[in-house]
Specification:
Elements: E1 5-8, H1 14-26, E2 30-32, E3 35-36, E4 39-40, H2 46-51, E5 59-62, E6 65-68, H3 70-80, H4 91-121, H5 132-153, H6 166-180, H7 192-203, H8 205-210
Parallel strand pairs: 1-2
Antiparallel strand pairs: 1-5, 3-4, 5-6
Helix pairs in contact: 1-3, 1-6, 4-5, 4-6, 5-7, 6-7
Length: 217
């Protein structure tokens, strides 16, 4: 394995996309996917579980290093590569970036992606239909998360101050998916600043490359 950065995981994963955004923002060359050095690595197969004991994605492969957990990967890439800093120098602002990165990766992802979006992507109802009772059940929690982010954003350009940070890297893919989902349109009515924020992220050069239509195998 060379020193090139490889992101193990499918491109449709919102967390894989977060690591992609990190690489794009910093100008880090990378490869992506479940094929490594010409060999397919089965999802949750023996090799994958060696890299990530919980069988999740993404996993960062960088030389002899293997690293999992999206926020840890992004911090590592930010610290080891040139390019625009994605973490503030100021200790308080950096703590805020860490806080919001954790909130997004845990609570917001759970509501928006695991419990809501995946009901549409991988429907488990009869005949492959969307379980609308599950969708309606989680909608109040999705709205609560959007309002939380709207309040944090306020009039700012980005989630923590006026600079793009790792917090935005974590937020962008999940919010972009939700924004583009037609049934979710009513959920955005009360968060106008967040709508503008999502559009701004999609218009960045990194967003145009990464936040593309998903191809789910």
């Amino acid at each position: 394995m060379s020193d090139q950065v490889h992101i193990y995981g499918p491109q449709f994963s919102n967390f894989v996309r977060s690591v992609q955004l990190c690489c794009e923002e910093k100008g880090i060359p990378y490869t992506l996917g479940t094929t490594v050095d010409g060999k397919r690595i089965d999802f949750q197969g023996e090799r994958h579980l060696e890299w990530h004991p919980f069988g999740k994605v993404p996993v960062l492969l960088h030389g002899d290093h293997r690293l999992y957990e999206t926020t840890a990967i992004c911090r590592y890439l930010d610290a080891t590569h040139d390019g625009p800093a994605l973490q503030p120098r100021d200790p308080w602002l950096r703590a805020q970036v860490d806080q919001w990165s954790a909130v997004l990766a845990l609570y917001v992802d759970q509501a928006l992606v695991r419990r809501y979006l995946l009901e549409f992507v991988f429907p488990k109802g009869k005949g492959g239909s969307v379980r609308m009772d599950r969708v309606k059940e989680v909608q109040p929690d999705v709205s609560r998360m959007l309002i939380l982010l709207e309040e944090q954003l306020g009039e700012q350009e980005y989630l923590v101050g006026e600079r793009f940070t790792i917090a935005d890297v974590i937020a962008a893919p999940m919010l972009d998916y939700l924004y583009k989902l037609p049934p979710a349109k009513p959920l955005w009515a009360d968060v106008p600043h967040l709508q503008t924020y999502v559009q701004r992220l999609a218009e960045r050069e990194s967003g145009r490359k990464v936040l593309i239509d998903a191809k789910v195998a």
